[in-house]
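Give me the fold.
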Amino acid sequence: MRVAGGLGVFLVGSLALGQSREPLCVTTRARRLVSGPYLRVNGSDRVVARPFPQGSPTAFLVAVRDPDHSLRVGDSRGLTRGPQELGWVPPRTTPRPSGMTFLRVDTDLAVQGEAVFVRDPVESPRPPDEETIAPGIPVGATVDAGVLVLEHLNGDLYATVVPPSGPVPEAHRVAEAPVPIAPDAHRGFVWLTMVERGAEGHRGALALAGTDDGSVVSLRFDGAGARMGEPSRWSRRVGGVMTLLPVPEGARPVALLERPVRGTTATGAQAREQVLVRLDDALEPVGEPERTGLGPYPTGYATRGSTLVLTQWAEARGLALATLPVRDGAVALELPRIWTTTPFAGVPLGHAMVRGGTILYDFMLHGDDVAGALHGYLAWVPPAGAPFARREVLPLRARVLAPPALLPAEDGFVAVLAEEDETGAGVDAVHVRCELVTFPAPRP
């Protein structure tokens, strides 16, 4: 990983010269939104957590795959659990319908109304030997009409728009997977990404989906969540998973692609780097991919003003932060800077970033491989100056089932986690509050 100027700066508030105030970040509320005997997810599944448009009666939406229609919310969580929910599951003569459960949540992290279960329009069984090719893997984006949720079922893409209130419509197919070239290739999309796109006061969405043989299909959605035009298939093939990045309004879209490079990592794995792929208005790639200086780690991203900010935690002890300005409608590349801290404890479980006002909250989740405790590490990134590192902001003990999703709050952020603990499995919402405090001046 390249470092601008070759300088490392310690990520501690005491080295930020001229700073008399520092952020204090603590968990103020943790609530279980929905629970069940278990969540049948794997490493490729995701939990959707997106805010509703401003002025909606509820704050945000949470959507999670519910393949057995077994999740419970509200008073039903307190009912007596039968033997089949305590570890022994008898054979079923009639399988339960698979689908997705939607939760509307207010600012106090309380579920509004009943959980809405929407059955899948098509059957999409998960073969036991196909860990990374699973039904679901939902992604979400806030549009004018609510939250657009995109998933792939039986290999194809399906979409639905969840309004702030009222019924949730059944998902409908918006793109069919291309036929693979190789006879032994998996038929269907194996990855998808979506990002919000604002234009002329309206908020729509852009999406990309790819197959394991390198085919990529692009889609556009308007403010109502309706597909605009037909899906477009790229003439180029891509050897990896892509991630659409948010950009300031008026800037041309871009995406990150992780591609292999020569060499190996410290653990012996294939060395990889993150490259920037520029797209035109039709979501077709333009020019050649450009190197960003970022390595093979999960990437956090957010916009602040007219800049795009990318972050990575290298070996769980160095925060690489790249601030990419937008010039003449295009994202300009700048080399990342690195701040170092003492190593994190445990095994990395997820990395995400969200913007709250002018502050960026970079959240890194680690878990003990023995005791099951969760370690939440937060980098509080101001508009100028060095970030501040805050450790152990998430005092929970559980086994995480999916990467965390972050939502902005007035005084910090909300982390949405799919996890399993001694009470069973469920989806939790944790409010982490951050405020600036003044510390007494050191004695001479």
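The CA atoms of residues 185 and 434 lie 48 Å apart.
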